[in-house]
Design a protein that fits this description.
Layout lengths: L2 H18 L1 H14 L7 H14 L3 H13 L4 H34 L1
Helix pairs in contact: 1-2, 3-4, 3-5, 4-5
């Protein structure tokens, strides 16, 4: 299955979850909007942090979501690669494996 197909499946799952527990998902969404406002860090910089955490915690759906956001925000492959290098430095072997996934997602979403 392609990363784009996985991303579409994830979005469908989240839509279903939103319908089942709208108050909880709206509260989570409000937290995200609050945190992602430009302040000392820009939204794009915060998405780099989020991608790094997604790789470090090995959350494949999170990698998809935050990589898609970075593509929309105009992130370059070089910028994403530097984030992934830091993930590898901090996370060792597991960081290396999930960094590879994240770069593959970026490449597919920008193709």
């Amino acid at each position: 299955m392609s990363w784009k197909a996985k991303l579409n499946d994830m979005k469908a799952q989240l839509k279903s979850l939103n319908g089942a527990i709208p108050d909880a998902t709206a509260a989570f969404g409000a937290l995200g909007k609050t945190v992602k406002k430009d302040a000392a860090l820009t939204f794009k910089e915060k998405e780099y942090v989020a991608l790094g955490i997604a790789v470090a915690t090995r959350c494949e759906p999170c990698i998809l979501f935050h990589t898609e956001a970075l593509v929309r925000l105009g992130a370059t492959r070089e910028e994403v690669s530097e984030v992934l290098a830091t993930c590898i430095q901090m996370g060792g072997g597991p960081g290396l494996m999930y960094a590879g996934k994240a770069l593959d997602v970026f490449d597919e979403l920008t193709a």
